[in-house]
């Protein structure tokens, strides 16, 4: 068996050498540096003299060592195989563009969340005016508001013109997201800034909650005061019919409940005064119409003076007498 195997190996080796025109039993020698195989490689010692190559090289700094290592790797790398189409296809270009855009969008959201203004500016300058969102509809301004990053909010609104009332998939605005118990110390400056830039106070989410609902639910008295003083609707109802004061009662936020109760009473009083003003205006208009009618009636030949003397036994005179008596009892005097 061993003799047969050696015979086969010798036969195979002889045929391998015979294809290349070499003799039996000889080994293939490496090609010299000037041969065809060495033409594709770049020699780093081509510009060195023999004396310089024999001397030991002095130690180089770290950057020089890295550059020499990279050059050596490039020199020893085999040539790339030829390809039929050297230019990349359009599909691969589009895929690369989409991947790059997704990465930039992801970095943009992270920069807004952590409050890194310079990183956020860089990512926004690379996004070419687009406003990237995640699967919940959150953009950079929503992440900045959720974490209470006032500097990022200023950059997004003033420099890159982000809408201050931009909605998420759940109809949440940045003003909704900034009102959170984790933002107790940073919520007020963000709320003041958003209101200064024209943020809507009474926008409702998908479940009908306004920013005042969220502030009352969290028990944030300072936020409740700012929203109410800015004109938030204290009687707003969510999808379940609850008002902001109802959440204060449910979660036992007594300070917020007392403030909202007083604000609701003042609001009701102001509404009542407004309605009374409208009623007085209506009465003055009615009196003026009646006065004009009496002047017209006097122009038809009737003698009118106060107390008005109407001809008796006439339905019109009886009607006017009833009108004047009714007005006199209620203190409505003619102009």
UniProtKB/TrEMBL annotation:
<feature type="compositionally biased region" description="Low complexity">
    <location>
        <begin position="1"/>
        <end position="15"/>
    </location>
</feature>
<keyword id="KW-0040">ANK repeat</keyword>
<feature type="region of interest" description="Disordered">
    <location>
        <begin position="1"/>
        <end position="63"/>
    </location>
</feature>
<dbReference type="GO" id="GO:0000922">
    <property type="term" value="C:spindle pole"/>
</dbReference>
<dbReference type="GO" id="GO:0060236">
    <property type="term" value="P:regulation of mitotic spindle organization"/>
</dbReference>
<dbReference type="Pfam" id="PF00023">
    <property type="entry name" value="Ank"/>
</dbReference>
<dbReference type="InterPro" id="IPR002110">
    <property type="entry name" value="Ankyrin_rpt"/>
</dbReference>
<feature type="region of interest" description="Disordered">
    <location>
        <begin position="75"/>
        <end position="95"/>
    </location>
</feature>
<dbReference type="InterPro" id="IPR042335">
    <property type="entry name" value="ANKRD53"/>
</dbReference>
<protein>
    <submittedName>
        <fullName>Ankyrin repeat domain 53</fullName>
    </submittedName>
</protein>
<dbReference type="GO" id="GO:0007080">
    <property type="term" value="P:mitotic metaphase chromosome alignment"/>
</dbReference>
<feature type="repeat" description="ANK">
    <location>
        <begin position="170"/>
        <end position="206"/>
    </location>
</feature>
<dbReference type="InterPro" id="IPR036770">
    <property type="entry name" value="Ankyrin_rpt-contain_sf"/>
</dbReference>
<dbReference type="GO" id="GO:1902412">
    <property type="term" value="P:regulation of mitotic cytokinesis"/>
</dbReference>
<dbReference type="GO" id="GO:0031116">
    <property type="term" value="P:positive regulation of microtubule polymerization"/>
</dbReference>
<dbReference type="Pfam" id="PF12796">
    <property type="entry name" value="Ank_2"/>
</dbReference>
<feature type="repeat" description="ANK">
    <location>
        <begin position="207"/>
        <end position="239"/>
    </location>
</feature>
């Amino acid at each position: 068996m061993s003799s047969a195997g050696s015979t086969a190996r010798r036969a195979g080796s002889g045929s391998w050498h015979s294809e290349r025109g070499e003799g039996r039993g000889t080994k293939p020698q490496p090609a010299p540096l000037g041969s065809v195989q060495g033409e594709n490689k770049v020699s780093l010692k081509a510009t060195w003299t023999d004396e310089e190559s024999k001397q030991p090289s002095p130690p180089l700094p770290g950057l020089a060592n890295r550059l020499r290592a990279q050059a050596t790797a490039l020199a020893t790398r085999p040539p790339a195989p030829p390809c039929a189409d050297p230019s990349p296809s359009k599909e691969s270009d589009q895929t690369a563009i989409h991947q790059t855009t997704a990465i930039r969008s992801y970095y943009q959201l992270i920069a807004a969340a952590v409050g890194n203004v310079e990183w956020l500016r860089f990512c926004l300058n690379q996004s070419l005016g687009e406003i990237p969102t995640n699967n919940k509809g959150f953009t950079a301004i929503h992440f900045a508001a959720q974490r209470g990053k006032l500097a990022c909010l200023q950059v997004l609104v003033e420099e890159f013109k982000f809408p201050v009332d931009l909605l998420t998939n759940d109809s949440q605005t940045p003003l909704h997201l900034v009102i959170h118990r984790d933002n107790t110390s940073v919520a007020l400056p963000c709320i003041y800034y958003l209101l200064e830039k024209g943020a809507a106070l009474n926008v409702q989410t998908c479940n009908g909650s306004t920013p005042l609902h969220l502030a009352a639910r969290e028990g944030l008295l300072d936020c409740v005061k700012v929203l109410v003083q800015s004109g938030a609707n204290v009687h707003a109802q969510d999808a379940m019919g609850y008002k902001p004061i109802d959440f204060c009662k449910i979660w036992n936020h007594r300070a917020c409940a007392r403030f909202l109760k007083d604000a609701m009473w003042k609001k009701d009083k102001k509404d009542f005064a407004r309605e009374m003003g409208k009623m007085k205006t209506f009465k003055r208009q009615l009196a003026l119409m009646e006065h004009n009618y009496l002047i017209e009636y006097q122009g038809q030949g009737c003698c009118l003076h106060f107390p008005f003397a109407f001809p008796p036994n006439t339905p019109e005179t009886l009607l006017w007498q009833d009108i004047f008596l009714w007005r006199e009892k209620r203190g409505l005097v003619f102009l």
